[in-house]
Amino acid sequence: MYHVKTKNFDNSCLPFLNKIVNKNRPPDTADTLTLSPLSRHNNPIMSKNFWLKLKKPIFVLAPMANVTDAVFRRLIAKYGRPDAMFTEFVSCDGLQSVGHAKLLIDLQYTEAERPIVAQIFGSKPANFYKTAQLARELGFDGIDINMGCPEKNLVKSGSCAGLIRTPQLAQEIIRATQAGAQGLPVSVKTRIGFNKNEIETWIPALLAVEPAVLTVHGRTRKEMSLVPANWDVIARAVEIRNETKSKTLIFGNGDVRDLEDAAAKAKQYGVDGVMLGRAIFGNPWLFNREKKTPTIEERLHVLVKHTLLYEKILGGKKSFDLMKKHYKAYVSGWDGAKELRIELMTAKTAGEVEKIVVLYLKNNTNK
Question: How large is the greatest C-alpha to C-alpha distance in the chain, in angstroms?
């Protein structure tokens, strides 16, 4: 049992947190960026495992650092909302430190993004307990623990994919998070092993503590993203779940091109759901089952909207250059895209980006 006071995040702090979140919210938007302890009382799925309410196969958006931030998720919610979304991963240790305010920007969300899951990482069970309490107070629908990120420094600290090497600590972290979550579903995202396939020992260790969902990325930590994802091993994780009679849902992740591919993989490999990641770059319509391929003009209009929202909401808090990885995806696949992309990379403000795009569209109206 974890009995840890959360004095740094009591309700008296919430007006301050909301001030941080809403300071740069565009005035023309109807939805509200939410950090409120009351939202859980108004949200019926908070009291139950919302994952069980979703129709299978379940298609979700992968959490990606400096990609699936509050701004991009807002656009995705508008143009093609998945069955569930995750925040960027946030450090439990950081959220329990004196510098926690700087990280709270990564925990903002809109009501349109529900069900919304806070993804967290770290290596100290007590901090997971306290952060789970915080996530509940902030109104999240669930909590996800990152046990798969292969980044060298994080692994060295014993967190993320580093937890594959310490299964007992991983179990303790899950239990601590479940205790702090007080009923919110706790899920885990991980890999098939550290230096080799460890599915036969790693997956049972995780299932033993009954996470609501286990998302399995079909590569080891050593493989990073350098080899194709092994979906046969993901299918074995499903078999292990069935053999142990676990109620945990199994999602697959890795090299999923689009919803059609996701549906095919769900059927072929028997997973309950599929997590899509890199396919979302430059394509907020990814989860829209009715939208056909967007036109060049549509893509560029959304690029501008994305940039304007980023500057209004995250300007001064995150580097403007982070937006430029999106430009590489939005602007590709047609004659003249390379030249436009090069010009966009020189922009330093949303205003400059808007001027560049407007001029390009004026000169290329029939393309």
Answer: 65
